[in-house]
Amino acid sequence: MAASAPAALFEKATKRYGGLLALDALDLSIPSGALFALVGPNGAGKTTALGLLTGLLAPTSGRALVSGFDVAREPLEAKKRLGFVPDRPLLWPRWTPRETLRFVGAAFGLAGAELEARIDRELAAQGLCEVADARNDSLSHGTRQRVALAQAFLHDPTLYVLDEPMVGLDPVAQRTLAERLLGKAAAGASVLFTTHQLQVAEELASDAGLLVGGQLVARGSPRDMRSVGGATGLSAVFFEHVDGPAG
Question: Could you give the CA distance from residue 74 to residue 10 in angstroms, rounded to a whole number?
Fold first, then answer.
């Protein structure tokens, strides 16, 4: 692994489901310290791309790497460096948030006082102290989403991969998450997140990519991104590609 390896790298990453081409030879590099928004319409390939990067899906061809480690060939090394939040918070229903975090921490090699301190840190950061010992299946969707976020932050990964992380969060929790992600990026970690909320991408991300039909059709600063048709800014470029140029 090279010291200068990007936090996340897709090299001709392709995924087919039978005759459906979900991701088409994606080339994308995300450097350390980036806060990267991956946007696109439904079915564009965003969740598929995250699936390849997290090892939930195997590429049909090409590869995805985390800090220089091929996710398919070196999954344990890659996943040590990942904090992942799926598009739906999948939690063991009979466990509590505290038990969930204890299990996740142990999976990442944390134990004893250090693990308990990190659990307390995440419960407080996510506003979960009052429900820390309630069963997961008794929690609201938004609260389960905060448990999922706590899992991702627990081991202080170098790459955060978040699929629609704002969904289900109230405005206070959204602001808290945004501030925390900005702090992580400022400290050198990288963040890759998908969102359908273009305003969130424009306000939060330092860099963005637009997927349409499994292909990366635009990349750049959300405010300065420009299309070949002349549209400037992420929202304008998005609608030019999705709706076609006005005429």
Answer: 15
